Amino acid sequence: MTGSCGLLCVRALREVGGGAGRSGRGRVPVRGAARAAPLPPADPPVSLLTDWYLSRAEDIDSCSRQVDCALSLVRLGKEREVPGLEVLGDDLVTLETLVYEASCELSLTLRDLRQLRDIDKLRLLMKNSPAERYVKNAYQWMVPFLHRCESQDAGSADALLREYLVTLAKEDLTLPLKIFQHSKPDCQQKIIGDHDQLMSMALECVYSCERDDQLSLCYDVLECLPQRGFGTETSLTRTLHDQVDKLEKHLSVAEVLEKHGLQKPISYVRNSQSSREERPTS
Questions:
Q1: 186-208 per-position pLDDT tens digit
Q2: Which residues are in the Sec39 domain (predicted)?
Q3: How far apart are CA 15 and CA 113, in angstroms?
Q4: What is the pTM of this model?
Q5: Nearest to residue 225, comparing CAs of 248, 253, 256, 207?
């Protein structure tokens, strides 16, 4: 009797726990047993989403030339906190200005613009600006562009504006002078807000000018610079004021030469003085 009960127990255990034999036949399902839930699909990488916005913005621009629609799409992505769209958004704002306001070539695409250096973008913005609207356009186009560049790369605004002005000054001081005149210490809204940067850029522009017929413009640039003692002074400020004093002397020498029919660029006067000071005494 005991043996029969043991056989029944073994058989019951087999049926409930593992079924009969290796094939698993005769397995008794357990009621109420939950099946494993399927895993949710993996989220795509964030970079894929960013790339999608980039490609769609480029497609909208190249196919329809509707920059404002491409910009609206990117702004929507930024509102939804899609990362990596800041530079793309800035480029679209620049392209929007170029296309709708700055009379740029209509063939310029977003893809073309993104391949340009920032200095080339700045030159494009101001390229077709007439002289009578140059200052207004500088406030509306150039200054916001420099702010966008600065937000992406600290210190880039100063470097870009310096390169832009110095390149212009080599051939003509007229446009750089307009920028300096609207950066004077008494201006309410300055294009160049830092006095040290103003003096540094002005000095470099005057000495970079290769023309010998713009002495009056050089004096006008000098009039835009702050007087010694104005504002907070640092060691750099004092050094720059010393250089401005030297510039004033160089302008006086150039004026004397001009009166005697010997027109020379200001850099000639500075280089002549430097050569004389470096010449060894016998």
A1: 999 999 999 999 999 999 999 99
A2: 43-261
A3: 74
A4: 0.80
A5: 248
Count of alpha carbons within 13 Å of 226, Cβ hemisphere only? Answer: 25
Q: How far apart are CA 87 and CA 151, in angstroms?
A: 10
Query: Cα dihedral sign for 171, 132, 96, 190?
Result: positive
User: How far separated are the first and last CA of the chain, in Å rounded?
Assistant: 135
Backbone angles phi, psi at 25, to 5 degrees: -70, 150
Sequence-distant (≥ 6) Cβ neighbours of residue 15 within 8 angstroms: 26, 27, 28
Task: Output the pLDDT for position 145.
Answer: 98
* Residues 168 and 151 sit within 8 Å (Cβ to Cβ): no
